[in-house]
Amino acid sequence: MAVTATVLFVLFTVVTTNKNTTSNNLNTKVGDQNVTYNFMENYTTTQPTEFDSTSPTPSSSSTEEPVQPTVPAKPLPASGRLLTPVTNVDSVCPCDKHKDVCDINCCCDRVCSEEVALFPSCSVDKISGKKMLCSRHVASYSLGSTMDGYSELQSSVRKETNYDIFCIQSQNRVDGLSHPSPALPTDSSFDSLFKELTSFIFGSEETSGQVSSAELQASSGYQYGDVMMTAGERGMFMLPAAAVTADCIDNSPAAFLKDQSSGCSRHVILEQDCGALPALSMDTYTNIQIFAGKNKDAEVVPVEVASVVLQSVDGTQTELKISGGGNVNPVLLNPSLCAHVVLKVVYMMKYNPAGEIVNVSVSLLLGFVREGELSLEQKFHITFVQEDGEEVAVHYSGNPGYVVGLPLVSGTRIAEGFARSMDPRDTLSLLHSAEDQDCLQGTHQRSPVLFALDSVSGCTLRLEDTANCSLVFQLLLDVLRGPNHAQYVASFGNSPLDSPIDWVPIKNNFNPGEAHICSIPLSLHLEIEWIKYGSLVNPQAQIVSITEVIQTNTTRLDVLSGSSSTLSIMSSVAFIPVSSTALPGYRATPTINGKLPFDFFFPFV
């Protein structure tokens, strides 16, 4: 019996096309609901098919080698940009259901140019591009009211920033957001694909031209964005920063000429980490030597300690005097309290026009950490200043009106106008309260007067120190007013120094005169009157008056203190809004332009 076997081979052919389709989402807001509209963009790319799917056919005569995947001819660019969308958001109108007919309450319908005056509201008031992009355009539609009570269309297109850490900033594909399947790596193409695909670094910027290696060797200084090199085991200058989470990443390099401010947190176990964790010690941030340039024979610039401030448990800050280049290391005072821990680090780097670092200084803030705290918060800041340039920029407290919580801008009158300190801490201030703070002994910390924030502080005066009444009077007055007593305060947060009308004098009617008893200042109070200036839509805070009120004693100090040997001296500030009630304004008084026919009074006239 013969058995005949028939083998049927089926050949599958995979056909690929080069036509890519990109789906774009339009996110619109209808009332309180978010509705997503989709529209399609079709375009054809010119790139060849990335790979071919083949099926080997059995043959008794010969064995064929499989076809190798095709490797793209052009490598991907090192960095890229987002393609310009074909459809603009201001040309898309989801509520336009009928062609050449005005749809009710459809503010984006271009046919409704005349009917929009009768619309009570907009059915679609916001249209935006894809949410996955870090920057997208948003078209907004709203209705305003005219003087006649009709609606008036107000439309705008603005660029909106997406702060999601997984948003798309740039991409290095010429296909836009539609990515074809990549080539399959093989033994022969793996090296070329690896070199091609790993050449892209996320966040790298495009350069207008490539710099030759000879030019790089000839340039001894750093260039913008270069990583600064250090001597020792580190190799690079690191500035801790937060990554995806708030935890500190210590191996984050700082780039040349890129000012950076960062904050992060650490989980600390006091018994183990107080004296052992390098990130808590100031020696980690001061014992650094940076190469002035990127050449191997460049000079080494050490980090100089500009200032070290110790912050107590209650928040009082005191500058430490460290001599001989010594450091203050963390110490475990008790199982639940670690002292001298680094809380803030501020670097100031000076460089010359050749790109070489000439000086590096650091200021540190040390403090205490308790066992009960969830995490240790640290802040880091680095600033680059050119040699023989302006070191500190002028700080403003608003543009133009004051911002709540920012310090008041104060100055003194000179012949050319007004002068103010570059240091933001050298402004109108009050005595900073601390436990058992003596008015006449020790150092006195001061706090700047913050706009729209009332505060009260003070100190303690011992009656045994009031033997010389006239001397105590002047000393107390200087303590309450501060070392640099301000004479004027800026009416706006960015008042120019050469405009006298924008500065408000500090009024003071205090006159000690002659007293038969020992008279000393018991309190200093600042009354600051401010108004909301400008439009109701965006009012600006303006200071119109400031008065200094000093109160002295009218009876003997021993009678005033009662049976106590101490007396409390107070300082305070109060912000008083004096804005008048807002009234609607018109450009011109409405008039009636009525004309009667010439024979209206016929036949009487």
From TrEMBL:
The keyword Zinc-finger does not apply. Residues 46-79 are annotated as: Disordered. Residues 219-386, 398-576 form the Tectonic-1-3 domain. Residues 1-17 form the signal peptide. It holds the Pfam family TCTN_DUF1619. Residues 87-177 form the Tectonic-1-3 N-terminal domain. One of its GO terms (biological process) is cilium assembly. GO terms for cellular component: MKS complex. Residues 48-70 have a biased composition (Low complexity). Keywords: Cilium biogenesis/degradation, Glycoprotein, Signal. Part of the tectonic-like complex (also named B9 complex). Belongs to the tectonic family. This is Tectonic-1 isoform X2. It comes from Cottoperca gobio.
